[in-house]
Structures are given as C-alpha cells and as structure tokens.
Amino acid sequence: MTSKILPISAFNDNYIWIIVQGNNAVVIDPGQSEPVLKVLQAKNLNLQAILVTHHHADHVGGIAGLREHTHAKVYGPATEIIPFCDIPLQEGDTVAIDGFSWFLSVLEVPGHTLGHIAYFGYLNPDEPVLFCGDTLFATGCGRIFEGTSTQMNQSIDKFRKLPQNTLIFCAHEYTLGNIEWALAVEGDNPDLQQWSQEARLIRGQQKPTVPTTVGHELKTNPFMRVDQASVINAAQAKAGRSLSAPDEVFAVLRDWKNSF
User: Fold this and answer.
1) Mean of the per-residue pLDDT values for the chain?
2) Contact at 8 Å (CB) between 100 and 21?
3) In this structure, are residues 178 and 139 in contact, taking their beta carbons and an 8 Å threshold?
4) Which pTM value belongs to this model?
5) How do 73-77 and 87-89 pair as beta strands?
6) Collapsing DSSP states into helix, strand and coil, what is residue 108?
7) Which of 149, 150, 156, 151 is CA-nearest to residue 133?
8) Residue 127: C-alpha distances to residues 20, 83, 103, 152, 157 (Å)
9) What is the structure's pLDDT at 248?
10) Sequence-distant (≥ 6) Cβ neighbours of residue 42 within 8 angstroms
C-alpha cells in the first residue's frame, strides 16, 4: 500500500507534514493541534505517531493537544526536551511504525538547535524522502541558534550526499525571500533564475513551493553550493578576504543571509 504526504498549514508559514497510508497517519513537527485534528477527522484517520525534529515551540506546541485525542507515540531527539517524548532518537536509529510499510533512518543535524534530527527513508519504492525540520529550506537554510556554522555545514553536507531525487519536506514557506537573497549571491545562475520565475507562479496560486529535491537544491541553493566557484567568489567578495574552506564560505553566507 502506497503512502501519501500532505502539507497542513500552521501559523503564518509553517508546514506540518502528514503521512497517510490507508487509514493510518503520522505527523511531523505539529506546532498546532487544531489543523491536524481537523484533517484527521475529515479523512477518518488514526494518528499512530508524532515525529519531532527539534524542540522549538512552533514544532512541538501541538503535541499535548494531539495526545489528548489520540494514542500517538512521540518520537524526538534524545538530547532535547520534547513534550511527551516516548521514544528518544539519535543518529543511526530506525523508526518503524505499526500500520506502515516503511521505516525512516535518523540523522543528527546540529546547527539550528544542538539536538536537531532529520528523518530519511523510502516511503514508496524509488521515492526517497527527507523530513529536515528547520535545517534546510528551499533555496535557504535555518538560522543558527544553538550550534556553529561549521556544525550546520556538516549537517547539510549529509543532505548533499543523499540521492538527488530525494524529496525534501522542510517546515517553512520561506522560498521567495530565500530566492531574493540567493540571486544576490549568484545572480547569473540560470537554474536559480528559472526557479525564481517558477516559485513566484506557484506562490501566486497559493500553493506550497515544497517539497523540493536534493538535486534541485544542489543547483539553486547557495548553502548547498559552497564548493562552487561562483558561490565562493561571491562569499569572498562579501567578506573582503580569501576563504580557504567550505565551512568559511558557509559562515559568510549565513551571516549575509542574517542581515539581508
């Protein structure tokens, strides 16, 4: 039986992802309970599990409300305080849920928070998926609140090495703003120019610009392209000095985006 992944809008720009297989469901990063409960009721779904990537309120705020109405188990990073966490997870752990034919592998991706994790796996044959929370966005990445730029670059490097057709389900609709910044970094990138046009059309229709793919991000996201000459040159021009390592390039890019 195949699985479907649907977005549930929350707050101003959050996405809560729901995986549906048959009458069973899993949600990822439920910052609010109400929109999830509405979907569960409308589709007559049984919530089996809640997967959490990190402790920020807009990712965990709905857990208590969902636990009041369901028996869903909560999975989350072992080194962070997650409400009602039943199963703490660390790098290399596997998530297998009753009622679902797939499993997900856990990646530790510190940077945005120190304990941030991501979930990677194949929900359907030849369809790799990544639930990355706030580590990577379409044409951008998360702010570094608790970790270092070196940690964040190393975390994103794990994503660079995934299959290029991996669907990336990030937790926010930040794409148009990210593209505006990315064009300042790499305005001559034809893939980025095309993506800018496509993304504006998508958002003009009130549709999500995500999921994206690893292959797409390798072509359009400066944070995924720290080894490319055009991005290195732009970062060096911004910094006013030579940058000798990808971590240094990444740090300049993150500071640039912070103040853009």
Assistant:
1) 97
2) yes
3) yes
4) 0.97
5) parallel
6) strand
7) 156
8) 15, 31, 13, 26, 20
9) 97
10) none
